């Protein structure tokens, strides 16, 4: 068996210096049937290693319930078969533009629990999770014949806290559970981040997108010895709904990569291939500058990241520029590119045949209705991704007064006595038209993604304050949640009827007939906001505000002939909407 270690100035493989040329590829953002192709693309670019996070919330939906943790092991087996090494970043916090930074909502919503600290309630959950997860990682370390050469302790902790005792406890837990691979931390190249996020005796790495020499000089002030590594070379960036599509010039990115390597450093391209946040798992940020206390900025479904291998697995101009740079560090000719997965044979239009209003969907697939004096949050209702219907009565008779939703996170479609009255957000929480009593108010509140970075990590979703009529709280609120996980068992329980006369919100069902199944993108022209499933596979959120205009449909999701489509429209489609259609990519 080979041995990988951290030397005074280099990484060592069986005692000989080696440079890690790694690329980030998240197994959970790529359809499993396409792992092999994407890994082969990384090798063809000139990389010898792949890095992945592990999202805790994906694999533990509820306390004591674990879901396909074995996917981590299957991915690492695919990495070994591809002839690559692996860097694993198990968190427990990962950021990754992923819902809640990978932390389960049931955990961050637990009263009194202080996440990302030595708080015993939090650490007891971490120990339980790591006990499950490390069964997949430990046997696949390099010294046991697997690909894993490094394992991260937490993630960019210096951007969040200063409890280095927490990091020590995590490092000790990893070692006690059998991790013998090199441990490391990663942080921004700033003094306060490195002092808060690094540990004595554990390799410190830095994350940046440019100015490598300055970044490594900062690292050397803190760590005079040890290999230099940029654990996240940000060669692209991610997009927000209603924002601009972000791109980075390929020559500029290649020049920054060249500078890192000229410093004698190892590197991990973030991202080498971004993939897709399937399943509605995209996270969100807070704007407002360095404090991250401003308006919510939800992430789009695509995690293309302007990466060298695009969302569809195709090489970009950046791929070829990076391949040129990396070829100088490869012992021999680079591998050829693997055959591209087949695209869809021909465009295909879906035929929608059934519809059910949101209330009927909620009745069939939602949780139990609860009544409380004040609105319960998503966390209190056990809803992770999805929506909650709140119902409250305005007493009467009384004159019209402003209706305000205090502490709204994130978006509410409001109905008064069954008539749509407007859409409210955190920034615009007051209905335009006053409401007179008596009246019944319904709020269909949607989470647009939990914050994955900054001090507001773990904030609650739903109505977190209350519903005000003038300055008076309206009490006795009824609430019922619809979690996206409820669709995993299908929609047979939903009482579908005929299509509505106009593009009403609700669940639409239909089929699309495919000739030549392969990679496709789904267009939803004229549809406003919601989620889509194809053959039970959730593609993610769509939203007409852009910048993302279509959803990626991996070829393995489709089958020859008839395919089932579900479309959960949460706002209402335009009158001139088009039928959903698949297009080749």
UniProtKB/TrEMBL annotation:
PROSITE patterns for the chain: GLYCOSYL_HYDROL_F35 (PS01182)
Q: Does the keyword Lipid biosynthesis apply?
A: no
Q: Which SUPFAM superfamilies match?
A: (Trans)glycosidases, Galactose-binding domain-like
Domain named Beta-galactosidase galactose-binding: residues: 505-563
Tell me the keywords, alphabetical order: Glycosidase, Hydrolase
List membrane-spanning regions.
Answer: none
Gene3D superfamilies reported for this sequence: Galactose-binding domain-like (2.60.120.260), Glycosidases (3.20.20.80)
Where the record annotates domain Glycoside hydrolase 35 catalytic, the positions are 11-328
Every copy of the Beta-galactosidase 1-like first all-beta domain together lies at 375-476
Q: Which InterPro entries does the UniProt record give?
A: B-gal_1-like, BetaGal1-like_ABD1, BetaGal_gal-bd, Galactose-bd-like_sf, GH, Gly_Hdrlase_35_cat, Glyco_hydro_35_CS, Glycoside_Hdrlase_35
According to its UniProt record, which protein family does this protein belong to?
Answer: Belongs to the glycosyl hydrolase 35 family.
State what protein this is by name.
Beta-galactosidase family protein
Question: Which organism encodes this protein?
Answer: Streptomyces cinerochromogenes
